[in-house]
Amino acid sequence: IMENNDMSISLYNNNNKRIKIIDIHKYLKEHKLLSKFVGENEILFEYGSIAPSPSKDYGHIEINFNEVIIRWWKITLRNIEGSIYPCQIRNNYEDFSNDEIAQREICRIFGKEILDYCLNIIYGNIDWFKYLPLNIKIKIFSYVNLDDIPRISSVSKLFRSISRHNDLWKIFYIRQHGYQLFKNKYFIHLAKIYGWRRLFFTNKLKLQMELRRQSLSIYHHQQHSLDFDNQKQFQTTTSDIIREKEKKEKEEEQQ
Prior knowledge:
Among the domains are: 40-131, no CATH class; 134-200, no CATH class. The protein is built from 12 helices and 7 strands. The protein has helices spanning 24-30, 32-35, 93-98, 100-109, 112-122, 134-141, 149-153, 157-163, 166-177, 185-194, 196-200, 204-254; strands at 2-4, 8-12, 18-22, 45-50, 58-63, 67-73, 87-92.
């Protein structure tokens, strides 16, 4: 039994349980802002893995806006003709939700968790967050409580990279300490060298010591550059005087 609405198709399984299958194209038409960040036919999920022992079969899953594609290669130690060619199942979302063979192969090669993840996608539980621009992701993370950042960073590689992003910790620093030190050029220089995350966790005394050390380092560097320029200028002036003197002596000898 099948029912239609604006953004999903409702199916009923053998237990008469209602299951909604998402129509992504219609969903994106309804959410125009999100559609700006997502391409025409993006790959929503792609994964490859080797089946658990004793099997050595290799499998690959791809879920795009229209289909679920499963490929697997039978790996055997024996040289059997045709064994190197992959098997493939291509289903639209509705067919995949009822395809026991495709679901069984996913479970065999990838496990039950991956099957559940694939089913969640076709049911509309899609991770749209990854399609957002980086500045919006950082803005969202900036509203997270600082105590929760370590836990969030362990969710995925994407969350970990955002949790450690320099721009995010600049927001946290401003929120915690304000703009008082932003007029200090040595402080800005420290932020470029060490990053805002390190400065956020640096206590005030140690930060003052770092600023003093940084200012002295820059001062000595400037003095060294100035001395070098003066020395170079002195050498140039001296050589000019010597050349001028030699020129005059030659002219006198000629006379």
